[in-house]
Design brief:
- There is one protein chain.
- The chain is mainly beta.
- It contains three helices and 18 strands.
- The strands form four sheets. Strands 2, 5, 7, 10, 11, 13, 14, 16 and 17 form a nine-stranded mixed sheet that branches.
């Protein structure tokens, strides 16, 4: 039986740091994270690093942790290619199974495609007095028609200036994109598109105010299964079984041999009757 978590105990898994939050395609990102056994007995944790970046080293570890023990780990990931002019927000996910429970922590990294501002470019200068024309970020949640959260949904955010950012929803259906250096989300109309196989694409538009976080709620509707087409009357008639023919009707005409045998039997009967007559009757 699993021990109840102690109030104020550290999370079973937590991301401590990433080497960079704004990168270019092909850049390496190092993530440091901590795993803690909050149970009352020693446990072997199963830790997996995944997400939108490709993990190359430290992607899976299985440490044996004593009760209350924490251990730090590091993994290396590589930023994927993105389209020119786009900035894609991708999650780094660290999941752990410990004491029969699954826990996760996430960190967003932004990959800048060719033609976009270089990471760190356009960062606000200290002491600047110009009012901000950017929203603080866009966050929200994706659910299905029954209200159940949906993870793994591909989300595209487009702001009023034409900037486009991509991310995915986590296990609880939540997503978040923050404005930052080299990645601005302009105030005004913000359109969010959600897509996932098996569901109809959802789209919503909200108005983002400078300095605020725009909140979005999206509902995905499952695609209905195709209806079964009833067979046409013609096809039904063509497939209907034909009436059976009796053996007598289906019997082939007798062969020549059968006819000959019948004639012999007839002649034998006639000759027997002929020779049974008196001798005088044999003459005309």
């Amino acid at each position: 039986m699993s021990a109840a978590p102690v109030a104020g105990a550290p999370a079973p898994v937590s991301i401590l740091s990433v080497s960079a939050e704004n990168v270019k395609p092909g850049d390496k990102v190092r993530v440091q994270f901590r795993v803690t056994n909050n149970g009352s007995r020693a446990e072997t944790a199963i830790v997996v690093v995944s997400g939108g970046l490709q993990c190359t080293t430290g992607c899976r570890v299985e440490p044996n942790l004593k009760p209350g023990q924490s251990q730090d780990f590091q993994a290396t990931l590589v930023a994927p290619q993105v389209h020119a002019g786009e900035i894609s927000g991708l999650n780094i996910s660290v999941g752990v199974r410990l004491d029969g429970q699954n826990s996760f922590d996430f960190k967003m990294v932004y990959v800048h495609g060719p033609g976009t501002s270089q990471p760190g470019a356009g960062a606000p200068q200290p002491g600047g007095d110009e009012p901000s024309s950017e929203v603080d970020g866009v966050s929200g949640q994706v659910r299905d028609a029954s209200g159940k959260a949906i993870g793994g949904v591909a989300l595209t955010v487009r702001d009023s200036a034409g900037h486009e950012y991509r991310t995915t929803s986590d296990q609880s259906g939540r997503f978040s994109i923050k404005s930052g250096a080299g990645k601005t989300i302009a105030a005004g109309r913000i359109t969010v598109v959600a897509a996932l196989d098996g569901y109809r694409t959802a789209r919503t538009t909200v108005r983002g105010s400078a300095g605020d976080t725009a909140s979005v709620r999206l509902t995905l509707t499952a695609v209905a299964a195709p209806a079964t087409t009833a067979p046409s009357p013609t096809a039904t008639a063509a497939e209907a079984p034909q009436p059976e023919t009796s053996a007598a009707e289906a019997a082939p005409p007798p062969s020549n041999l059968s006819a000959t045998r019948a004639a012999v039997r007839c002649c034998r009967s006639s000759w027997a009757a002929y020779w049974s007559l008196p001798a005088w009757a044999h003459w005309p």
